[in-house]
Amino acid sequence: MSFAYYIWYRVRADERETETVIRHMMSRLACRSGVAGRLLKKREEPRLWMEVYEGIADPDAFALLLARAVDEFDVEMFCEDSRHSECFHGDGATVSAACARPGHEEAR
Length: 108
Known about the structure:
- By secondary structure, the chain is an alpha+beta fold.
- The chain has two helices and four strands, in the order E-H-E-E-H-E.
- The longest helix is centred in the first third of the chain and has 18 residues.
- The N and C termini lie far apart (40 Å).
């Protein structure tokens, strides 16, 4: 079973310095944990950001490494409020549509 972390927050300003610090923190976390994250910004609300980390084997160990990286880079000073973190688990399987299988072309 693998786990995924979704962390969302609002930044004080969508500026180059903020993004640089967040990306450096994420890079350090990837080196320490082996889990590369993605940084997303909400469409039409560019100050709402989300970090996504997937394929995590040990969620408790990852949470400690994440907290350490966030503290080390003082990420909270760039956030308007606190960061919100959620951890999900799943089997890692993707769901495909029957129409995506060969021989199941939809009539046009």
